[in-house]
User: Fold this.
Amino acid sequence: MRVVLVYPGITMEGFAKPATRPKTGYVQHGLCHISAALKNKGHKVFLIDLRQLFDWQELPGIVRRIKPDVAGITVMSMDFDVAVESARIIKETGKDIKVIVGGIHPTIVESDFLDNPWVDYVFKGEAEMTLPEILDDLAKGNVKDKTVTGRMPDLDSIPFVDRELFGVLEAPWVPFLKMPFITTVAGRGCVYNCNFCQPAERKLFGAKIRRISPERLIEELRFTKNKTGLNSLMIHDDCLVEDEKWVERFLGLYGNKDLRKPFICQGRADIIVRNPALFRDMKRYGLALLLIGFESGSQRLLNFLRKGTTVEQNYKAAGICKRLGIRIFANFMLGIPTETREEALATVRMIKKIKPYVPSPAFYTPFPGSDLFEYCKKNNLSLITKHSDYKRDPVSPKIKGIDYDFLNKILSEVKKLPPSVRLKRKIDRLTLGRFNKELIRKYNPPCI
Ligand code: B12
Assistant:
């Protein structure tokens, strides 16, 4: 079959600017996995990355050129409107094209699509095993229900992600990492139970965490390195360091001369405090930046969020990272339901003390499928009126009872970085940034 996958990523970034289609950007791993699984079964796979289009008018012509039998659209909550508009245009361009939506939003809020005339099937869960079977059934005219549920694959048995699908170079978003840079996701699921996220992720990936074996990841990195080169890496897992044994085994293999490149991943304050030796080893093998969800400087709110960490651990973890020379990317939230001004100030004070390399603030956003979303619904707190509001950037108000002007005022304090951090960033930019620019100049990504 001819399958076109659609990445509707314009909610945040918009369409391409006149005369310049982006040469860099992140890839969407779900679609890259689906592409690999379908190609493996002999299907012909195409991609429409809306970020590469100048406007909606381009879409019908592209669909006519591809002549797909099936269109698969991935949908995060904030991309809902764009996804539905894509489905409408695709269906109106070719009424026989079967449109399937999948990803976190259809998995959690299936009902958003059930009455939609442009969507033929709503796919819940993971697709590598089940989507190829659905395509076989579609060819035989055998798919009756609008909702389809995917089986969970064994991550070591599925093909490597199709990194070429997107035709853009991934680019590190920090100046001290060199291209070629790639992102990868080593596991699915999360053992933690934070109420701002769960149980949505458990509904998508199941209750148990599954992770690719370190050996298989190394095999994939080596394969990628031989194909496109590899100078730095981000492992996107929600909490990679949760399985300390896995990390040790991975490091043992990754540390092996040819592969050892700087990498970024996500950690947790309690794990850093419990096992600093693990992070010392990670630093030795290339950990260049560690994302940590500090979330709040109020213990009451950390408990309310079911984060499972303490404010004291936040400070201690930051101290350990400083001593080990690991740069910190500090995720934290303001505007949590029930948060007082004093608690918001405590969070800002904490971040100022920690002095992270990147302070990354968010306004708490109630995402569908999470327990805190249900709490906001029950207490009539949500100010989200359209799907495109489902982004946690500290810009628009998210819930009632929060003084966002006050939050913006106290946030400006965190944005004023100490001179030492500003200088370090400038040096990073000057020394390593130019390698990346040269690579992007050389590279001409194919555009549809
Ligand atoms: C990597 C990542 C990012 C990266 C890359 C984002 C991207 N567009 O790919 C970055 C850091 C840029 C990012 C940013 C954001 N992210 Co993010 N991100 C993730 C993360 C950690 C991994 C995603 C991933 O690759 N998973 C692995 C792949 C294999 O899984 P998958 O994509 O779900 O795909 C499988 C199935 O869903 C299904 N499937 C998916 N699509 C389709 C389509 C079809 C047709 C079918 C049949 C099946 C199908 O099959 C796939 C293979 O089995 C997830 C959490 C998680 N663990 O998944 C959050 C997550 C997706 N992000 C989230 C959010 C909120 C954001 C932001 C909006 C945050 C913000 N700044 O406000 C931004 C949005 C940026 C953007 N424009 O897209 C939420 C989404 C919640 C929601 N309800 O929408 C998640 C779930 C985290 C969370 N729990 O809150 N993110």
Q: What stands out?
A: DSSP finds 18 helices and 14 strands in the chain. Residues 9, 12, 26, 28-30, 33-34, 72-74, 76-78, 100, 102-105, 123, 126-128, 131, 185, 197, 200-201, 204, 236, 238, 367-368, 390-393 surround cobalamin (CB under 6 Å).
